[in-house]
Amino acid sequence: MSVTNAFPKPDIGDIFVRKNLNGNEEEALIIAIQSGPKAGGLWQAVMMTKNGTEFVTGDQEHRNIHDWRPKGWIHDEQLGNWFSPAQTVKIGEQRAAEAAKAAVEAPEHKDEFLVADASEITNAITKKRGPVPKLPVPQLPQV
């Protein structure tokens, strides 16, 4: 089930995207916006697409990758919601921290190392494996 999330009001000239049923990504340009000071965060917009005009509104429930969304926003299948690029970074950091904590608390790793965050885990793994060996660069025959 999806969580309702409203997109912030775009500016004229912003780009919205969606994935069509052929698997291609479509882009549309916002050409008109209607909103009012008493409407709160509600807005409606007209987009110019390859095939004509489409309409989008900020209070719509955006369910999946086939719905129009601001370019750069990412759908999280696990949460069933859309997130801005800034929110996506925060969620990724939270999940990395949770995964690091789970890895440290796993019985097979209890005595191996105690770390405070994901960067220390990465450093510990790198130290175990050692540096990545450099491969020789093949020389081309001279003509």
Name a few traits of the molecule.
alpha+beta; 2 domains; 5-stranded antiparallel β-sheet; two-stranded antiparallel ribbon; flat
Helix and strand composition category: alpha+beta
Percent helix range: 10-25%
The coarse overall form would be flat
What count of domains describes the coordinates?
2
Continuous helix count: 2
Determine the strand fraction and express it as a percent band. Answer: 25-35%
* N-end to C-end Cα span: 65 Å
Count of DSSP strands: 7
Strand order of the largest sheet: 4-3-2-1-5
Q: Which value, in Å, is the CA radius of gyration?
A: 23 Å
Low-pLDDT runs: none
Order of helices and strands: EEEEEEEHH
Mean pLDDT score: 75
Largest sheet: 5 strands, antiparallel
Structural notes for this entry:
This protein is α+β, with helices and mostly antiparallel strands and about 140 residues long. The chain has two domains: about 15-80, no CATH class; about 90-130, no CATH class. The protein has two helices and seven strands; from the N terminus they run E-E-E-E-E-E-E-H-H. It has helices spanning about 85-105, 120-130; strands spanning about 15-20, 25-35, 45-50, 50-55, 70, 75, 80-85. It has a five-stranded antiparallel β-sheet, with no helix packed on it. Strands 6-7 form a two-stranded antiparallel ribbon. A hairpin with a 5-residue loop joins strand 1 and strand 2. The longest helix is centred in the middle third of the chain and has 21 residues, at about 85-105. The chain is flat, with a radius of gyration of 23 Å. About 10% of the residues are buried.
